[in-house]
Amino acid sequence: MSTDAQPIPFLDALRRIEELTKRIRQGGLAHFDTLETDMAEVREIRSALTQRIAGVRRARG
Predict the structure, then answer these.
(1) Could you write out the DSSP letters of every residue in 37-59?
(2) CA angle, corner 3, sides to 19 and 35, nearest 5?
(3) How many domains does the chain have?
């Protein structure tokens, strides 16, 4: 995941969420250790995107 100083491009972030979601579905509970890590990354990316969208909305008034 990127740092705040260098955020992941929006479309790349969406692609990463899709990739992780696919991996989670394929692995299921059999891969619980990676499932937890993948879900945490999805939450982190979604949070960053939500904050960026809110910032754009605020800037537009």
Answers:
(1) HHHHHHHHHHHHHHHHHHHHHHH
(2) 35
(3) 1
Would residue 14 count as lying in a domain?
yes
Taking only the tens place, the pLDDT of each residue in 1-55 is 544 567 789 999 999 999 999 988 888 777 888 888 999 999 999 999 999 999 9
State the residue range of the domain holding 34: 10-60
Instruction: Enter the pTM of the model.
Output: 0.73
- Whether the Cβ atoms of residue 1 and residue 45 lie closer than 8 Å to each other: yes
Cα–Cα nearest to 44, from 4, 33, 23:
4
